[in-house]
Design brief:
single chain; mainly alpha; 87% helix; elongated
């Protein structure tokens, strides 16, 4: 289902963000590598936000459909 796909993507993204955090916290990471990791992290966070917004919109629609059936 769409919800399980979003959940899987969120889990994968969070694992990648954790790995990126470790890279950024490592003092041996070069500035170039830090910037690349940061840019990837920003993209992952934005993708997570987009997924959550889509789920929220779907929940609103479903709530509206169900409220008319009461």
């Amino acid at each position: 289902s769409a919800a399980s796909d979003v959940y899987k993507r969120q889990e994968e993204s969070l694992k990648k963000i954790e790995a990126i955090t470790a890279v950024l916290e490592n003092p041996a990471t070069s500035l170039k590598d830090s910037l690349a990791a940061y840019a990837e992290g920003v993209q992952l966070v934005q993708a997570c936000k987009d997924d959550l917004c889509d789920v929220e919109k779907e929940m609103i629609v479903l709530s509206g459909e169900n409220s008319g059936k009461e």
